[in-house]
Automatic annotation (TrEMBL):
All residue ranges annotated as the HTH hxlR-type domain in the record: 6-104
Annotated organism of origin: uncultured Truepera sp
InterPro entries for the chain: ArsR-like_HTH, HTH_HxlR, WH-like_DNA-bd_sf, WH_DNA-bd_sf
Taxonomic classification: Bacteria, Thermotogati, Deinococcota, Deinococci, Trueperales
Protein name in UniProt: Transcriptional regulator, HxlR family
Keywords: DNA-binding, Transcription, Transcription regulation
Amino acid sequence: MKDDFCPIYASINLLQEKWTLHIVRSLLEGPRGFNELGRDIGGCNPTTLTQRLERLEASGIVEKTVQSTMPPRTRYTLTEAGLALQGVVDAVDRWGRQFLNAPPTEQGVVQPEVKTPVRQVQVRGT
């Protein structure tokens, strides 16, 4: 039984890392450059952001495109598998609103971990 594939375990193993769903959530709004992602999610250091993006790319969730401009620009977009996480993000959002009762602020919802407001966004398909 131990060697049987469990899609829930495998999914949680990929998505549980800190900042991973924040990255996906930001990219659901559209392609982003590295610095844009860093600003969007706030509080994630560049080394960690690089590691998360590399893992998401290796897992087929994110696609990295390097534009041959001077200086070169890197853009990140969600793949089909990444876009399919829309429902997961929506479900987590609904669950959090229902059971966590996060107090809204003028800027958004305060994310306790980083102590900064997180913009509430409408992502594709909602």
